[in-house]
């Protein structure tokens, strides 16, 4: 008998959530999931506020997440240690991005955002 770990069950819940979405969102959100886990294989997927979220462990705070509500979006949670953008954006803190589809450039940017969230979290705990 194979016993599924909590991480396995959480992953399956995320995959089931994505599979239950209507097209074209399902394909975009599946690709978003694939990009996130490829960029940061150490992150553990789980459902967070009804949508896929990714954290360093099953019990740690979610760092990045995506949603499929009125629009599809990628977000970084406050647990990733957000900082003002500076420059012309002044004190605005970039924490969410809307997306309609993914292309190579967007996938690369998503991967950068995910890795940046992990680095910010790690450096804030050092």
TrEMBL record:
Pfam families: DUF1801. It comes from the Bacteria. Residues 26-118 form the YdhG-like domain. InterPro entries: YdhG-like (IPR014922). This is YdhG-like domain-containing protein. It comes from Nocardioides humi.
């Amino acid at each position: 008998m194979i016993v599924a770990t909590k991480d396995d069950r959480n992953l399956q819940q995320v995959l089931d959530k994505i599979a239950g979405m209507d097209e074209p969102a399902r394909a975009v959100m599946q690709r978003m999931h694939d990009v996130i886990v490829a960029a940061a294989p150490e992150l553990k997927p789980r459902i967070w506020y009804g949508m896929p979220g990714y954290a360093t462990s099953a019990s740690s705070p979610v760092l990045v997440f995506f949603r499929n509500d009125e629009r599809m979006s990628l977000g970084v949670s406050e647990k990733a240690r957000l900082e003002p953008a500076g420059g012309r954006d002044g004190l605005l803190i970039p924490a969410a991005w809307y997306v309609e589809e993914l292309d190579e450039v967007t996938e690369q940017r998503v991967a950068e955002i995910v890795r940046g969230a992990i680095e910010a979290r790690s450096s804030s705990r050092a």
